[in-house]
Amino acid sequence: MNIVNKLTLRHLKENKRRTMVTIIGVIISVAMVTAVSTLFVSFLDLMKQDNINKGGEWHVQYKNINQEQLDAIKSEKNTDHVFLRKDLGYSKIEDPPNASKPYLFFTSFDEKGLKEMPIKLKDGRFPKNDGEIVVSEDILNQKNKLKIGDSLSVELGDRLMDDTTLFQDNSFNGEEEEFRTKEKASFTIVGTIKQPEWEYPWAPGYTVISALNDKQAGSTAFVVEQKLSRKLFDDAKAFAKKHDIQTVEFNHELLRYYGVSNNDNLNATLFGMASIIVGIILIGSVALIYNAFAISVSERARHLGMLSSVGATKIQKRNSVFFEGAVIGLISIPIGLIAGIGGMAVTFWFMNTTLTNVFADGLKISVSITPFSILAACAVSIVTIFISTLIPARRASKVSAIDAIRQTQDVKMSGRSVKTSKLTRKLFGIEGEIGLKNLKRNKKRYIATVFSLVISIILFLSVSFFTDNIKKSAGMTQENYDFDIQLTGPSNNLESLKPFVNAENVTDSVLLEYVSFQSWLASKDVPSALKKDPDYQANLNDGKYAYNLQLHGLDEEDFKEYLKKTGSKVDPDGVVVINMLKYQGSDRKFYQSEALDLQKTKKLDLYDFNGEEDEKVGSINIDGEAEEAPMGVRVGYGLNLIMSRDTLQKIQKETGSTNSIPFLYLNSSDPSATQEAIDESKGGDVEVFNITQMKEENEQFSLLVSIFAYGFITLISAISIANIFNTISTSISLRKREFAMLKSVGMTPKGFNKMIHYESIFYGLKSLLYGLPIGFAAMYLMHMALNESFEYSFSPPWMSVLFVVVAIFAIVGSAMLYSTGKIKKQNIIDGLKQENI
């Protein structure tokens, strides 16, 4: 080790406080980068595992294949392994306990499929041949008791409606659908399974699983690939075409978590958001570490000058700073890595104790570390430290012996450069003028402090906007269930549901009738945001846009309560529109926009729901709008109109509409007990849909996103505040001689405090002048990136903007007062010496 490096180490040891501040700054930066990479990898791993637990691990499926096609799939070079499934059909349940689930749904898997798919055996064993079955435990719990060992003879068939075959993702349609028998079959029950995660809550059949026999024609092959890349989609389609396979589908959700997607919008969103967030983190890290090293070089000015006076070259002085960065990096990076990973581990532990039903099988989020994520965090940290030391190192190399010993290199002053306006003196007095001149005299420190503040503003606003929009985007991809149980009665029979309003454990209820119409609006009156919908042109007919209208009639008292809750100034016989559409377009992009421009549109014509424009049956006036819908009314592609039942009945009478569907939405303190009570007393014409689990999963997922979001904001806020305090307190410490000089010529403590207060104001105003416009620009860039997959208007987080304005002045003022409080009692003579070494 050469003498310059030895002197650098000695300087670091003797200036313990400055060294510790620099080390802590680097540790915070490394921990932030590590925490973000760990969070990203852990969350992706969690989502992969959750998806596999719900739907099995597969990447491509080829439907309705024969043996020759199966052999080709197995021999394809990128195929790792294949398992098979074949749906056998439905069987009717006599006297079904649940009117919305009147079937048994029979499907079969080969031996590998029974192992690969998330089928959870509760009792007994899995089937070994096509004459054995395992049945969902739900059907064993019903009143037509079945048990292991029973024989079951059934008629297997298909569900059809208008000659179209229906599947498990199609809910039961009552008398509108037809059951067509295909064959008779007999089975022996050898086990029971839990309701599969891949069985839709609205599925009309209880799952029954058999072993796939040798007749594999018509099976679906699920393929697990060896290597995953975006070529997968084109290769699979080309393979299917080559071997005359008609249908090929992909496990898009699972592939997305592996970073493989054929959705260019989604790829652009992910890449754009990742680039912006990483850029923000890097800028924040560079700012934090740069300030630490820049201030360290300022404090070492005399030390570097003495080295220069005894023959140190420019290269040696520059390398001295690089060596300092290397030493601090060797200490800080390992600690930062441990702190970042440990911080995420504590965060995940807290989240796992709070969240219970977000993921299948009670899956918990755990720390996932990959060599790539650690190497990436180290590489980013090393690059950050190098960039942060580069400018201070160049400055250090240019320090001359005389300037360094005199310590005048940071103050380059001319009359013009420190000139202030008369307005400053008039508004702030002599103390304000002196404070502003002081800032201009110490230009580099002033710029460093303002830069630090600007970066903090940009970081906070960007992260606030990012978290708000991630929550909004997550909300757009999820169904908004605000009820536990939905009951649907027969058409025009509201009375069939009234007995259940006060069912056992019910805490809240909404009873309503639903009628649907269609309406047409001139293209010129359609809001511009809606015209971005890729399906917009398809919904145009002779220059008019087709709307699906969903009219909801509430009890008079419920409607009055709804008007009061939403603040809608509408008469009890008026109509309120939920002026929002939220849906996924044909381009797989999520859209959210207003549906009507109420300045242009106050009245809608009503047409029968058959798309024929010339069959106008009436009209409806819109009297107001609301952002919140009543419980049970979900915002989607249709336009929701809320009114009293009396108003709805008048519209029905005027239009001749005789078909209304009654719904009852319930919240319960014990949804399971409530459903059991309803099942015992309801007739077969009332359908019950219990979505408690889905509702809880959605709520828990929203909470998960919120914890991530606000944890990120808290982390960024803490780093920003630490950065500001570090920069300002060090800057004040370096101005001891300046303050001592002012006191020596008669500045009173009161005047000194006023000067510091005005400096705080100048710092805050200057940083906001630059920080807010740049922050808004960063937010808009994020909005543009998100708009590749989520279409909604740009909405800045105004509360965060207000908070940052107040916080900047509060933090700067506190930092200035804290720093000056430490030097108020200093001796003037000692202050004039300003010995930093």
From TrEMBL:
<dbReference type="GO" id="GO:0022857">
    <property type="term" value="F:transmembrane transporter activity"/>
</dbReference>
<feature type="transmembrane region" description="Helical">
    <location>
        <begin position="270"/>
        <end position="293"/>
    </location>
</feature>
<dbReference type="GO" id="GO:0005886">
    <property type="term" value="C:plasma membrane"/>
</dbReference>
<dbReference type="GO" id="GO:0051301">
    <property type="term" value="P:cell division"/>
</dbReference>
<keyword id="KW-0812">Transmembrane</keyword>
<keyword id="KW-1003">Cell membrane</keyword>
<feature type="domain" description="ABC3 transporter permease C-terminal">
    <location>
        <begin position="276"/>
        <end position="400"/>
    </location>
</feature>
<feature type="transmembrane region" description="Helical">
    <location>
        <begin position="701"/>
        <end position="725"/>
    </location>
</feature>
<keyword id="KW-0131">Cell cycle</keyword>
<feature type="transmembrane region" description="Helical">
    <location>
        <begin position="798"/>
        <end position="818"/>
    </location>
</feature>
<keyword id="KW-1133">Transmembrane helix</keyword>
<feature type="transmembrane region" description="Helical">
    <location>
        <begin position="321"/>
        <end position="351"/>
    </location>
</feature>
<feature type="domain" description="ABC3 transporter permease C-terminal">
    <location>
        <begin position="712"/>
        <end position="828"/>
    </location>
</feature>
<feature type="transmembrane region" description="Helical">
    <location>
        <begin position="371"/>
        <end position="391"/>
    </location>
</feature>
<feature type="transmembrane region" description="Helical">
    <location>
        <begin position="446"/>
        <end position="466"/>
    </location>
</feature>
<dbReference type="Pfam" id="PF02687">
    <property type="entry name" value="FtsX"/>
</dbReference>
<comment type="similarity">
    <text>Belongs to the ABC-4 integral membrane protein family.</text>
</comment>
<protein>
    <submittedName>
        <fullName>Cell division protein FtsX</fullName>
    </submittedName>
</protein>
<keyword id="KW-0472">Membrane</keyword>
<dbReference type="InterPro" id="IPR003838">
    <property type="entry name" value="ABC3_permease_C"/>
</dbReference>
<dbReference type="InterPro" id="IPR050250">
    <property type="entry name" value="Macrolide_Exporter_MacB"/>
</dbReference>
<feature type="transmembrane region" description="Helical">
    <location>
        <begin position="768"/>
        <end position="786"/>
    </location>
</feature>
<feature type="transmembrane region" description="Helical">
    <location>
        <begin position="21"/>
        <end position="44"/>
    </location>
</feature>
<keyword id="KW-0132">Cell division</keyword>
